[in-house]
Each structure stands twice: as C-alpha cells, then as structure tokens.
Write a structure and sequence with these properties.
It contains five helices and six strands. With 125 residues, it is α/β, with parallel strands linked by helices. It has a single domain, classed as Conserved hypothetical protein from pyrococcus furiosus pfu- 392566-001, ParB domain. Strand 4 and strand 5 form a beta hairpin. The relative contact order is 0.28. This is ParB/Sulfiredoxin domain-containing protein. It comes from Mycolicibacterium rhodesiae (Mycobacterium rhodesiae).
Amino acid sequence: MAVKWLDDPEDHDFDAAADYLSMLAEDATVTATVTELRSAKPLYRKAKDILRAARLTVLPVDNPHVKSDLAKIEAGKKLSPILLVRGTPADAMQIADGYHRVCASFLTEENTAIPCRLVSWVHPA
C-alpha cells in the first residue's frame, strides 16, 4: 500500500513542533524557526534517510501512535508532511513533528519519498 500525503502540514503540527523544540532552544529561536518552517518549500526525503539524519531508530509496530498512522495508511488516508530542523555535523537533525509518521512510512516502504519542510535553526539577532 502506498503512503499518501497532504500537500501542507496541518496547523497543529507547527504547534507540536514548537512544543518539542522549546525543550531544545530559547523561545525567540523556536518562534523564528517555526516561522521559517511555515514558509519553507516542500522537499522529499526517504524515511530511512530521515531516521539516519536524526539518529533515531524506527519505533515498533505496536507503538500506539505508529499503529494509528499505519491504520490511516491502510485506510488510504493522507498523512501530514514532516517538519525537520537541520542539525550541525555534531548534532543530529531534529524531527520537530512527525516521528511517528516517519516510522509508519518506513514500516510500510522505507524508500517512499516523504514530503518534508526542512530549515536550519534561526537565531534572531
């Protein structure tokens, strides 16, 4: 079964990204970075490459959120694109929102091109 994707992330995805990123950076940096995510052009990356760049392992099929996303895929529903923040060579890329969706896509077909928004951290002056 092919994974289907929405054209744009949903508004609550940006809120979730901000919540997560707020544990890694100061408020002004998070706000500026999420603003960049909102306007970033979509690009496509494979699930296996996203997990490698983020230095994360695939979550198991029985994870409740992965299981929910797998059910959506099976039902032909579209998933929301993934929000990514580029790391440095020393620090991993952050999946700001969509880790479970990446894992569900990986478990379905690891080479599927996933629509993403990818930005670098924005540090306000």
